[in-house]
Amino acid sequence: MKKLFVLMLVFFMLSTQPVSALSSKVNQEKSLIVSGKQNMINYEIYTGEVENYYVLRLAKDNQKGYTPQIKEIIVDLEVNNAKLLSVAPAGKLDVNTSQNKFYSSRGLNSQLKSEGLFLVFKTTSSPNGEVSITFTTTEYTPLSRIEEAKTSDVISFTIN
User: Fold this and answer.
1) Which of 115, 141, 142, 157 has its CA 20 to 30 A from that of 51?
2) Quick count: other Cβ atoms within 10 Å of Cβ 151?
């Protein structure tokens, strides 16, 4: 009985090991396409774990001193020479464009500083497809009570 228990334990340990190896391999398959910083927001675009899925991450540095609060971020996404199939979280989705809004009433600033905002989208594969992204931040300064909207430059990459 004791031998059977030891054999089952060894078998269980051996059978679960490839699962952890597989998950680390999947994490390594994500690759960074574009990264940069505009309007105090860091952005990174990765290929997803599944073909034709892309992940946009927006984050804010933990800066010392006074920084304006972000009231709203609007992300505009456009796909050319391919088809935009889905966007998550769900936003306004037209033929090949999408607009997603994130508001400060939902803990926007703390989320930007901790893990960031994520936008996942799927396209059809196309040899000459291109994705263009812009984001607009509305900053609020409580001391002067001034709101200012800042729009990023176009961030684009090709679909393989």
Assistant:
1) 115
2) 13
* Secondary structure letter of residue 119 according to DSSP: E
d(CA 134, CA 40): 14
pLDDT at 150 over 50: yes
**Please, which pLDDT band fits residue 58 given cuts at 50, 70 and 90?**
very high
What pTM, to 2 d.p., does this model score?
Answer: 0.75
Intra-chain end-to-end CA distance of the chain, in Å:
57
Q: Give Cβ neighbours of residue 96 (< 8 Å, ≥ 6 apart).
A: 78, 79, 80, 82, 83, 84
Looking at CATH, the fold of the domain delimited by 31-159 is given as Immunoglobulin-like (2.60.40)
Q: Which amino acid does the sequence have at 87?
A: V
What does the domain layout of the chain look like in residue ranges? 1-29, 31-159
